[in-house]
Amino acid sequence: MQPPFEKFNSQEDAQEMLDLLLTHGIHATIEQGGKYFDPTFANISRQPEFLLMLNQNDFSLAQKILQDNYAQQYPNLSREYYLFSFTDSELLDILAKPDEWSIADHTWAQILLSERGKTIKPEEVSRQSEKRIREISKTERVNPLLISAGYLVSATGGLLYLFYSSFGLAASLFGIGVGIALRYRTKTLPDGQTLFVYDERDREHGNRILIIALLSAVISLVAFFYFATSRF
C-alpha cells in the first residue's frame, strides 16, 4: 500500500502534481481523503479531499523533482502571494515544520529568505527536517474520557436496541469506528515512513472496544431478526 505524499483540496491540483511525477517515471496515484474516523474529533475539519500516493522509496526523489519545479516557478510568483507578507521568523517556521506546509511553500520560503539575506544552508534544512521527524514520530495519547465513552457506547449498543432499535445499532457502529481508528489509524512522515498514531496501550483499548462493539452489533442484528420473525 502506498502512503500519502501530499494533500490537496482539489483534484485538479493533485492531478497536476501526478502528471509531473509520471513524466519523471515515478508511479503515483490519487485517492479520496478523509477515510478514517478520528475518535478525538480534532482533525475532522482539516481532512484533505485528495491524497497523492506513492511508494516510500520514491519520496526523496519526488521531493527533489518538485522542489526544482517550484524553484523555477518562483520568478513568476505573484507578489500578492501570502508568503511575501510573512516575517523571517514565520518563514523559518515553515522550514522547521515541512509536514505542515506544501512542498511549494517550503521551497519558496527558503528562496524568499535567501532574497532577504538569510541564506539557509541545505545541511541546516536537512537537520531541521530530521529533528521534526523525530518530534512527530512520537505516538499520541487519547483522552481517557473518550476511551471510556467508547467502551460504554459499545457495550450498551446491543441493550439499547431493545428500547430504541436505530440508536442501539448506531451505538454499535460508532463503537466499531472508534475501535478501528484507535487500533489501526496511521500517519505518514515527511520521509514516507508510516507509523501508528496512538501508543500501544490506547491501541489495545481500541482492539477491545472493537470486539465489544462487534458483539453488540451481532446482538442488535439477532434481536432485529428475532422480533421481525416473531411478528409473523
Query: Rg, please?
Result: 23 Å
Average of the residue pLDDT scores: 84
Helix share bin: 55-70%
**What number of structural domains do the residues give?**
3
What is the rounded distance between the termini?
A: 49 Å
Low-confidence stretches are none
Order of H and E elements: EHEEHHHHHHEEH
Structural class: mainly alpha
| Beta-strand residue fraction | 5-15%
Task: Summarize the structure in words.
- A hairpin with a 5-residue loop joins strand 4 (186-188) and strand 5.
- The chain has 8 helices and 5 strands; from the N terminus they run βαββααααααββα.
- The protein is mainly alpha-helical and 232 residues long.
- It folds into 3 domains: 1-57, no CATH class; 77-136, no CATH class; 144-226.
- The strands form 2 sheets. A 3-stranded antiparallel β-sheet has the order 1-3-2, with helices on one face.
- The termini are far apart.
- Helices cover 59% and strands 9% of the residues.
What are the defining features of this structure?
mainly alpha, 3-stranded antiparallel sheet, 5 strands, 3 domains, elongated, 232 residues, two-stranded antiparallel ribbon
List the helices and strands and how they pair.
Layout: E1 4-8, H1 11-23, E2 28-32, E3 50-54, H2 59-73, H3 88-96, H4 103-115, H5 122-136, H6 144-163, H7 165-184, E4 186-188, E5 194-196, H8 200-230
Antiparallel strand pairs: 1-3, 2-3, 4-5
Helix pairs in contact: 2-4, 3-4, 6-7, 6-8, 7-8
Summarize the structure.
This protein is mainly α and 232 residues long. It is 59% helix and 9% strand.
